[in-house]
Amino acid sequence: MPLMTHFPVGKLDYRLLEKLLALNPVRDPRVIVGPRIGEDAAVIDFGEKYLVVKTDPVTFTAKRIGWYTVNINANDIATMGATPKWFLVTILLPEGKTDKRLVSQIFRDIIEATRALQITLCGGHTEISYKIDRPIIVGHMLGEVEKHKLVVNTRARPGDDLLLTKGIAIEGTAIIAREKEAVLRNKFGSKFVKRAQAFLDNPGLSVVKDALLANSVARIHAMHDPTEGGLATGVLELAKVSGTGVIIDEERIPCYPETEEICKFYNIQPFGLIASGALLIAVDPGITKEVIAILTKNGIVCTPIGKLTEKSEGLKLLRNGKSVKMQTFRVDEITKVL
After folding, report:
1. I want to staple 52 with a disulfide (CB 3.0 to 4.6 A). Which of 82, 159, 200, 222 is the partner?
2. CB contact at 8 A, 164 and 129
């Protein structure tokens, strides 16, 4: 009998996940958007507005974990065009390692993040669990949106411009700089490491402002925040849900110098490194300038990086003037470092 192959750390393979989700199709007509590869949250009809709901954990790092959890869940609400409003959290704490200081810091981080985004912490659960070696937090975010402002990624279509706010691998850069501080300080110096660690706040992990501003000026076809698996996986998920292909101009992908140096040092690809902090936006070319203008006016860099194409063209990179197959990442590049 052949040995069972174990899955690697990270997201479940999307092909298997699709098969599993197909076993239980959504039958409630009030569920407007159910579980689907490439959509960031569920959408439920609540009368005059839509309720947008998301759950997401933080597992790669324990530092500022409460702050992380609020922001990554709020991001997924905002990419649907909704305003994040209410937050619930499940906090699992390690046996033999949990004290008042640890718990207090997690709660302070959660409160700081919810206040900054004007979100109400309204419930959850805490417990000390055995057989875990670090805190694990699962966030549950709810938001609401006017029905005509809902952004559903199935609306993206061939010919759309693909825009990216800020730059790639913001989250991955910050996590590695925090988890590998001593090694990186020895290699690059304290100022470099401090800059990289500060990526959580500048350019920042939140894309709530990015998404709500973009959605305020015109009908956005799609928005997606690339997270685990980096920009490459974000692009793959967007193409999957919209039934399109993609061509990305590699030279136009914004990447911070700190990110490039850290990735070079650890021999990893920034294109596949966890990327919260950036936002993919698919828009009709006729409104591209308008979207870029309002984001720029509000201090958010926005760069056209490619176009959506026909599905038959697949996922491509424009490299040195030639079209090549885009690399995909089954496992996030950060797993090679942590």
Report:
1. 82
2. no
pTM equals 0.92
Secondary structure (DSSP) of 107-130: HHHHHHHHHHTT-EEEEEEEEEET
N-term to C-term CA, the chain: 34
pLDDT band of residue 2 (cuts 50, 70, 90) is low
Q: For residue 46, give the nearest of 122, 123, 139, 146 by alpha carbon.
A: 146
How much is the pLDDT for 21? 87
Q: Quote the pLDDT of residue 37.
A: 82
d(CA 142, CA 83): 9
Question: Across residues 56-64, what is the average pLDDT?
Answer: 83
Mean pLDDT, all residues of the chain: 94
The residues that bridge with 45 in the sheet, in sequence order, are 50
CB atoms within 10 A of CB 101: 8
Q: Residue 266 corresponds to which amino acid? A: Y
Q: Which CATH class is domain 153-336?
A: alpha beta
Q: What is the pLDDT of residue 3?
A: 60
The class that CATH gives domain 14-149 is alpha beta
Q: For residue 248, what are the β-bridge partners?
A: 306, 317
Q: Which helix (H) or strand (E) holds 193?
A: helix 190-197
**CB of 234 closer than 8 Å to CB of 226:** yes
